[in-house]
Amino acid sequence: xxxxxxxxxxxxxxxxxxxxxxxxxxxxxxxxxxxxxxxxxxxxxxxxxxxxxxxxxxxxxxxxxxxxxxxxxxxxxxxxxxxxxxxxxxxxxxxxxxxxxxxxxxxxxxxxxxxxxxxxxxxxxxxxxxxxx
Length: 133
Known about the structure:
Blueprint: H1 2-20, H2 25-30, H3 32-62, E1 67-71, H4 76-86, E2 89-93, H5 105-112, E3 119-123
Parallel strand pairs: 1-2, 1-3
Helix pairs in contact: 1-3
């Protein structure tokens, strides 16, 4: 708001002196206050923007889980990918006799959106069940 009002005042001073025919060094002297206000407003706004952006980056880093447990099909590569994506410690629990890969990195990253807990458990079960006799 300060920048808008100061700009209006500066433009008024310029037009006033231009229409009176006295545009010159006196105009620059009269413009020293609006120019000072615009520069200080811009500097303060820039400073606050940098602080805001820094705080937002810290909030994003703090809200990621520190530990993720995956329960489902065995896939050692998915643990490395999830650890690289989230920066968390990742463990995978699986059945010993399944080798089917059913994990999707996109599904895992979507399930982690908005999670603020320190520890997360993500499960993935195979739809095809074995029948035992």
